[in-house]
Design brief:
Length: about 725
C-alpha cells in the first residue's frame, strides 16, 4: 500500500491532509465509541494514517497500484483485518464506525443503499452505474439484465462496498436537501371540512352549521348514557300501551298519500310489529330525553317559559307533549330546533364533538319520532278534553293545518330522496361467469382485463414521473418497507380513538427510506406532475371499484379520506390490507361496514397516498392556494351567490363565519385529508375524468370497437358487453 502524501514529513502530512479536508490537525476521536448502522449526517473526518481515514463513520482506505490511479475505497473494519496495520487497527477501534453488515439486513433486496454524507463522496473514488427497480428494491444493470429493465434503468453515482462473502452494495448520495421527506411532516388537518356530497341534506335543508354545542350541552347530553337502558325500557312500556289502545279504539282508517306508494296511499296509522315498536322506542327515547333536558341547554336561552312543557315521563305526559307541539296554532320553533339538533349523533360519547348522523341513521330516527308522535296524538284524541281543540287532533295528519307536521313530512320526503339517490347502486352475481352491475351485465374476464389495463397505466405514469424525481421505488418495494414490515407501521390502532392521519402510523425512518428525491438540475413541470398523479388516482379508483367486495359508486370513492374528520382508511393488522369503513350496502341497511381491499389494490392505494401524493405536494408547493370551495363541481359555474353558498365546502371550528379559512390553509386541509384530489382542476376528482376510461378499457374490447367503426359497422356486436356508465352519479 502506498500513500497519497509520500515524500512529506509526518508533521507536514498530517497538516496538509487536514488542510485539504478542512479539518484541524490532531482531531481527537470520541471517548465512548459505538457501532452505528448508518452514517451520521453531521460531517466528521479523522486522520488515522497516510492510507486510512474515517469519514462520517466510514473507514476510507487509500490504494495505489503500480500503473493505476490512486483509489479511495470504503472498507469494512475488523480488529484482526490484515488490510490495516496494528497501529491503524488500534486507532480505529476507538471510533464509532458504520456497521457495513447492517446494510444487508436493512436492504436485503436492494443493491443501492442511501447515505447522506456528501463529504464521503467528495473523498472517495466514485463511479456511474445503471440501476433498475424491482419489487424488492434497486438492482444493478449487468450483462444478464433483460432489455425491459435496461429501458427503465436510472444512472447513479455510487461508491462500491465489496464484501468477502456477500454481494456488493453500492452507496449513493441521498442529499436531504433534495428529499421530499419534509412534506411528510405536514399532516396538519386543523379544521374539519363539511362537504356537500355526504352532508348536503343536513347543510342545505337542516342548516346544521348554526347548531353549536357548548361544553355544558355535551355534559348534559352525556348523561343519557347513564339512564339509556332504563329510559328505553320505560318508553317501550309507554309506547306499547299507547299502540295497543289506539289499535283497539281508533277505527278511522283513511288512506293517506305515501312516499313509497304515491298512487295508492296506505292505511293510517301504520301497523307495527313488536320488533319495530322496540326499535322505535329505543331510538325515540333519545329524542324524548333531549326534550326533557332541553331547558338545561344553551339553545333554550332564546325560549321563554311559555315554550316549556312538563317532561314526558308518563303515558299521558308523552301524549300531551306531542299533541301540544303539533296542534295547529302551536309555536313550531321548538319542534324545528329539536329535530335539527337530532341531526347530530350526540349519543356517541367516543368523540370529542358530535358528528352528523348518516342519512340512513337519521332517516330511521325520524321514522321513530313520526311513529311516536302519530300514536301519541291519536291516544290524546281518544282521551279528548284536556287541551282545547284536541278533539279533532287526528286531523293534523289529514290536512296541512299543522305547520310543524307539514314541515316534518316535507323534510322527511327530502331526506328519503337524498337517501335513495345515495344508495341506488346494486350488484349481483349471475351464473356462470358474469356480474350484474346497475342492471348491466359484465363478464368477469372483462373486469379482469380492465383491472390489468389500469394497473399497467398506473405503472406507466410512475415511469413518467421518474424524469423529475430520483429514488422512485416500485409499489412492491414501498409496501414491503412499510405496509408489510413488522416494525415500520403501527397496525394496532384504536379505531375508536384514531390517529389524525394514516401517515402517523408509520415511523419516520421507514418513511424516509421510501419517499423520492427531486432531481436538483431538472425543472419540475408542476402541471405535468399534477396531471400524472391525478391520472394515477383515477387508476386506483377503478381498482377499488372492481375489488371492494361490492363496487363503490363514484361519489362513495370521492369522499375517501386518509386523514382528518371522517377518516375511513385503516390497516388490517393481520392481512396488512387497507380497510374502508363504509355505510353503503346493497340491501340499504345503512349499518357501518368494513370492506377490506385485496392486497394488490391495497398496495397501490397505499403507494398513491405515500409516494405519488408526496411528489404532487412538492410540485405544487407549500403555498398552493387554488383549491376550489366547490369540491364536488356541483354548481356548474352558477353565479347566484345563494346557490353557490349552498354547495361550498365549509370549515367548522372556531371561525366566525362559514368562510373562515384563508386559501392556503383551506387548500392544505383538503390535500392533506382527501384521497382523490385533482390539482389540475383544483377540486376533487371529476366524474368526466373517471368515466373517460370506459372509452379506453378494456383494450381488447375497445380495439374491436374501433376496428368495426372503421369498417362502417356497429361499434359493438349485439351480444357483446355493453358500454355503460359503471359508476352512476
Amino acid at each position: 500500500m502506498a500513500s497519497a502524501f509520500l515524500g512529506q514529513t509526518k508533521k507536514n502530512r498530517i497538516y496538509n491532509w487536514a488542510k485539504f479536508h478542512s479539518l484541524k490537525p490532531h482531531s481527537s476521536p470520541p471517548s465512548h465509541p459505538t457501532k452505528q448502522p448508518f452514517a451520521n449526517p453531521t460531517t466528521t473526518m479523522f486522520y488515522i494514517s497516510d492510507n486510512v481515514s474515517v469519514v462520517d463513520g466510514f473507514v476510507v482506505l487509500t490504494i495505489e497500484k503500480e500503473g493505476a490511479s490512486v483509489r479511495k475505497v470504503v472498507k469494512k473494519f475488523h480488529p484482526k483485518s490484515k488490510l490495516f496495520l496494528l497501529e491503524e487497527r488500534t486507532k480505529l477501534a476507538n471510533y464509532a464506525l458504520v456497521d457495513l453488515d447492517e446494510y444487508h439486513t436493512a436492504f436485503p433486496g436492494s443493491d443501492l443503499v442511501p447515505v447522506p454524507s456528501s463529504q464521503l463522496f467528495s473523498v472517495c473514488t466514485t463511479s456511474k452505474r445503471l440501476f433498475y427497480t424491482t419489487p424488492d428494491g434497486f438492482r444493478i444493470v449487468n450483462s444478464k439484465t433483460p432489455d425491459r429493465h435496461r429501458r427503465c434503468s436510472q444512472e447513479y453515482t455510487v461508491i462500491p462496498v465489496v464484501y468477502k462473502d456477500k454481494p456488493t452494495k453500492y452507496l449513493y448520495l441521498r442529499d436531504e436537501t433534495h428529499s421530499t421527506q419534509y412534506l411528510l411532516a405536514d399532516v396538519t388537518v386543523d379544521r374539519d371540512i363539511v362537504h356537500s356530497k355526504d352532508s348536503s341534506f343536513f347543510e342545505q335543508e337542516m342548516n346544521v352549521g348554526e347548531i353549536v354545542f357548548t361544553e355544558n350541552d355535551l355534559s348534559v347530553l352525556a348523561g343519557f348514557q347513564q339512564y339509556k337502558a332504563q329510559f328505553a325500557e320505560d318508553i317501550y312500556s309507554y309506547f306499547s300501551t299507547i299502540y295497543s289502545e289506539v289499535r283497539s279504539r281508533y277505527h278511522r282508517r283513511p288512506y293517506l298519500s305515501s312516499f313509497h306508494r304515491p298512487g295508492y296511499g296506505e292505511t293510517f296509522p301504520k301497523d307495527l310489529q313488536i320488533p319495530t315498536i322496540q326499535k322505535y322506542s329505543s331510538m325515540g327515547s333519545a329524542f324524548l330525553f333531549l326534550a326533557e333536558v332541553f331547558p338545561q341547554l344553551s339553545f333554550a336561552e332564546d325560549f321563554t317559559c311559555e315554550h316549556e312543557q312538563s317532561p314526558p315521563k308518563s303515558i299521558d305526559a308523552i301524549a300531551s307533549w306531542f299533541t301540544f307541539k303539533l296542534l295547529p296554532g302551536s309555536d313550531n320553533e321548538l319542534w324545528y330546533l329539536l329535530v335539527r339538533i337530532c341531526c347530530y349523533n350526540w349519543q356517541d360519547t367516543s368523540v370529542a364533538y358530535p358528528a352528523l348522523h348518516t342519512l340512513n341513521s337519521f332517516r330511521q330516527l325520524v321514522d321513530s319520532i313520526r311513529a311516536l308522535a302519530t300514536y301519541s296524538v291519536l291516544y290524546r284524541f281518544l282521551h279528548a278534553g284536556a287541551i282545547p281543540g284536541d278533539s279533532t287532533a287526528d286531523e293534523i295528519f289529514f290536512t296541512k293545518k299543522s305547520e310543524p307536521w307539514t314541515w316534518t313530512n316535507v323534510m322527511y320526503h327530502k331526506l328519503t330522496v337524498a337517501y335513495q339517490n345515495y344508495t341506488k347502486f346494486n350488484v349481483r352475481v349471475c351464473k356462470p361467469d358474469a356480474l350484474l352491475i346497475s342492471g348491466k351485465k359484465f363478464s368477469r374476464s372483462y373486469i379482469r382485463e380492465f383491472y390489468a389495463n389500469v394497473k399497467e397505466r398506473f405503472e406507466s405514469n410512475l415511469s413518467d414521473l421518474r424524469q423529475y424525481f430520483d429514488k422512485v421505488l416500485s409499489v412492491q418495494a414501498v409496501a414491503d418497507a412499510t405496509l408489510n414490515s413488522p416494525t415500520a407501521i403501527d397496525v394496532a390502532e384504536n379505531r375508536i380513538k384514531t390517529k389524525n392521519s394514516l401517515l402517523l402510523l408509520i415511523n419516520e425512518t421507514a418513511l424516509a427510506n421510501v419517499v423520492p428525491d427531486f432531481k436538483p438540475n431538472v425543472t419540475i413541470d408542476s402541471q405535468e406532475v399534477a396531471r400524472l398523479v391525478a391520472d394515477m388516482g383515477v387508476c386506483v379508483m377503478w381498482m377499488i371499484y372492481f375489488s371492494a367486495t361490492g363496487p363503490y359508486r363514484f361519489p362513495d370513492m370521492l369522499i375517501l379520506k386518509y386523514a382528518g374528520n371522517q377518516r375511513n382508511l385503516f390497516v388490517d393488522p393481520e392481512s396488512r390490507c387497507l380497510d374502508i369503513i363504509t355505510e353503503y350496502s346493497k340491501n340499504r341497511e345503512g349499518n357501518p361496514m368494513c370492506k377490506t381491499l385485496d392486497k394488490v389494490t391495497s398496495d397501490h392505494l397505499f403507494y398513491y397516498i405515500i409516494v405519488a401524493r408526496n411528489m404532487l405536494k412538492h410540485a405544487v408547493g407549500t403555498e398552493y392556494a387554488d383549491m376550489k370551495r366547490d369540491l364536488f363541481n356541483e354548481t356548474n359555474g352558477a353565479a347566484e351567490e345563494s346557490l353557490l353558498n349552498g354547495y361550498l365546502a365549509r370549515s367548522i371550528g372556531d371561525g366566525i363565519s362559514a368562510d373562515d379559512m384563508d386559501p392556503v390553509r383551506y387548500s392544505r386541509n383538503v390535500v392533506n385529508s382527501f384521497v382523490f384530489v385533482d390539482c389540475t382542476s383544483h377540486s376533487l376528482m371529476h366524474y368526466a375524468r373517471f368515466s373517460a376510461f370506459l372509452n379506453l378499457y378494456p383494450m381488447s374490447v375497445n380495439t374491436i370497437m374501433i376496428a368495426r367503426a372503421k369498417k362502417g359497422l356497429d361499434a359493438r356486436p349485439k351480444n357483446d358487453i355493453p358500454e355503460v356508465r359503471l359508476a352512476d352519479r
